[in-house]
Amino acid sequence: MSTQINKMSIVFSDRFRYTLVVSSYKERIFLKHSLIRFSAVVLTIAFVFALTGCGSGSNSFTWFVDSIPANLDPQVASASADVIACENLYSGLVRKDPSGKYEPALCERWEKSSDGLTYTFYLKDGLTYTAAKGNATDYAITAEDFVFAFRRLFRAETNSPYAVEFAALENSAAVLAGQMPESALGVTASGPLTLVFHLSSADDNFLEKLTLPGAMPCDEEFFNSTRGTYGLNASSTLSSGSFYIYNWTASGLFLRRAPSGSLIDSLRLVQNTNSAGQSAAELIANEKCSAAPDDTAAPTTLTSLSYSDTTWSLLFNCSSVFASTELRQALASAAQGAAEVPDGGLYAAANGLVPDGLTVDGMNYRDTAGDVTPAAVDARALYLTARQTLTTSDFNKVSLMVPAGSGVTSAAEEINGVWQKEFSLFFSVEEVDEETFAKRLAEGDYTIALAPISAEGGSVYNMLNQFTAAGGGLTGYADSLYATQLQASTQATGSSRCRLLGDCERQLLSDAVAVPLFAQQKRLLIAPDIRNLIFAPFGPVLDLTYTTKNDVKETLKSHRPILLAGAFWTTAFLYRRFFREKNVVFIHKTQFFAACAASKPQNCFQSHAVISWGPSRRA
Questions:
Q1: Which residue has the higher pLDDT, 356 or 33?
Q2: CA 73 to CA 86: how far, in whole Å?
Q3: In b/e form, how buried is each residue of 432-468, taking b as 16+ CB within 10 angstroms?
Q4: Residue 522: its pLDDT value, please?
Q5: Strands, DSSP E only, in 389-536?
Q6: DSSP 397
Q7: DSSP string of 177-229, one letter each residue
Q8: In whole angstroms, what is the distance from residue 250 CA to residue 137 CA?
Q9: Cα 599 to chain center, whole Å?
Q10: pLDDT at residue 288 above 90?
Q11: In what order do the strands lie in the sheet with 29-32?
């Protein structure tokens, strides 16, 4: 049964306001406040004032690391977490802004000679280092600090991973080898605020290299005072950047800087200990972190940056039956023809062992090094040649090891099936957990593995060096030509260096030590309120110098005039509409009762009628 309700607003002369609701169904009269709507508006305005008037608090940024930073010595730091910490804790001569342009950091300006062999930097005056908790120090930042830092790079006992990047400095190789004194290195101070670099050959990427942790200043007096603990704890670390160490514990590294508008003023480098089962998108949505690498292809509305830093490759242990180059080449050729890219959008066909996008001295490595794909071979003929020196029993313990849950097991089974078909070789596919996989790979406890090979630090050299005895001997491969060329690349620059590295990669693939199959696609997901984050997977680079966080409170505060104007006009509109309703009558409350009694008193005063009122706020 339908019910029609007619409304008539009644305003008493002493400011009592009600709405008379007449129901034809039960013939009841309900009186209720019309100013409920005004109360809502008032509360809304109060909310806007309260929210926009609040302080923004800490603009924090949380980044999950695989391990807590352990070494903040910038001339030594190489682990991913250590490098990220150093990038934000220290400033060097120059820094990249969000647009990718170089701008002065600790220097006011610089000059470059016409032949590109001399760089002169003029430092800012009055700069000092900052100690833990933001405490000021008397240690001034001078040109001599950069001289000492670079001399440390080329001390053999430092074993700095950054020495190779500055091979163009005058006499660098001789100083590193101990054949010349440190004073012969092409870095000098012409006064406390003037620093000069002398290069033996032009390096077009020299400014880029000056943003690396290894190029950060180091005060010699403070360094000596730490007695071998420089950068290993908060008290033995000084900051030259915008952030300083606030706390450094087993729970994480916490950096801070003075609050300034919407700039990030707190950086938390911690491990994901309580939300390990959540995806990158979920972690960000649940405010567990501010940005996170994602290796899924799930749709997202978050800002994302795509990249690939890992190549899944077949690795043959050269210390096993696969010491035979012909055998490796035969199996590699068959595998490349059989391997299909796994479904799901996470993988793409690999163009080489080194992922696309890596640069060497500012040059795109893949474009400069050229195609490294091995020439086609007769797999069957190579296999028959290899079998002349092998027996069936030599293959008894061969297995193809893959990490469980990686999504490549099906591809491994396809490859194994082709080997059975083409060569009558019956290997097993062995799935092991990730920890066991990594341990056995490092110890050489495998015969064949389908493994992820990553470009740690974005270095092509480091990626290829894993296949030398000095670099870890990943596959037990030992070739003097390979080692010689790789070492020669450390003394070259630009396109010459790219070509030497390309020759090494080409040899590695031609000898079928590693067989690149799939490039793993990744992306960085970023919280929607984060802006101007400088990120590069190769390095890695996570620079928050310019990063801002525009949270809700800050957004409302910045739009406060608009919000208040909107609230005012909404209130005015409702107020005017209230008084312009056609059924509004203005009577005294005593007249209301009289009118009811004179007309239909039963509608007003029967026992089942519901009447309620209260005074409104005076206008």
A1: 356
A2: 8
A3: beeeebeeebeebebbbbbbbbbbbbbbbbbbbbbbb
A4: 87
A5: 399-403, 428-432, 448-454, 514-526, 530-531, 534-536
A6: T
A7: TTSS-GGGSSEEESSTTEEEEEBSS--TTHHHHTTSGGGS---HHHHHHTTT-
A8: 26
A9: 77
A10: yes
A11: 29-32, 17-23, 5-12, 585-587
Tokens 């089962």 label which residue?
277
**Cβ atoms within 10 A of the Cβ of 151, count?**
19
Phi, psi of 423 (to 5 degrees): -125, 0
- The bridge status of strand 5-12 relative to strand 17-23 is antiparallel
* pLDDT in the model for residue 613: 36
* Cβ–Cβ < 8 Å for 252, 271: yes
Rounded CA-CA distance 201/185 in Å is 14
Asked whether 476 and 317 are in contact (CB, 8 A), the reply is: yes
Rounded-to-integer distance, Cα 353 and Cα 519, Å: 9
Question: Which among 455, 221, 393, 427 is positioned nearest to 316, based on CA atoms?
Answer: 427
Distances (CA, A) of 195 to 113, 119, 484, 557: 14, 8, 34, 45
Q: Which alpha helices (H) appear in 241-393, and where do they start and end? A: 280-285, 325-338, 365-369, 379-387
Cα 485 from chain centre: 33
Quick check: 194 pLDDT over 70? yes
> What pTM was estimated for this model as a whole?
0.68
Q: Give the integer Cα–Cα distance in Å for 37 and 574.
A: 8
Q: Say if residue 525 is exposed, middle or buried (CB neighbours under 10 Å; 0-12, 13-18, 19+).
A: buried
On average, the pLDDT of the chain sits at: 84
Residues in a beta bridge with 452? 312
Placement of tokens 């009762």 in the chain: 593
Over 90: is that where the pLDDT of 578 sits? no
On the question of a cis peptide bond just before residue 537, with omega within 30 degrees of 0, the verdict is no
Q: Rounded CA gap, 153 and 216, in Å?
A: 11
- Residue type at 578 in one-letter notation: F
Tokens (6 digits) for 597: 């009694």
Distance in angstroms (rounded) separating the CA atoms of residues 605 and 598: 12
What is the CA 278 to chain-centroid distance, rounded?
17
CB 252 within 8 A of CB 108: no
| H helix count then E strand count, the chain | 19, 29
* C-alpha Rg value of the chain to the nearest Å: 36
In the chain, what percentage of residues exceed pLDDT 90? 67
388-397 contact pairs (CB < 8 A, 24+): 389/324, 390/321, 390/324, 390/327, 394/321, 395/321, 395/425, 395/427, 397/447
Distances (CA, A) of 22 to 18, 31, 589, 610: 13, 9, 18, 11
Among 219, 239, 211, 244, which residue's Cα sits nearest to residue 93?
211
On whether the CB atoms of residues 306 and 519 are closer than 8 A, the answer is no
Res 503 pLDDT > 50: yes
**Max CA-CA distance within the chain?**
121
Residue 68's closest CA among 269, 279, 296, 311?
A: 269
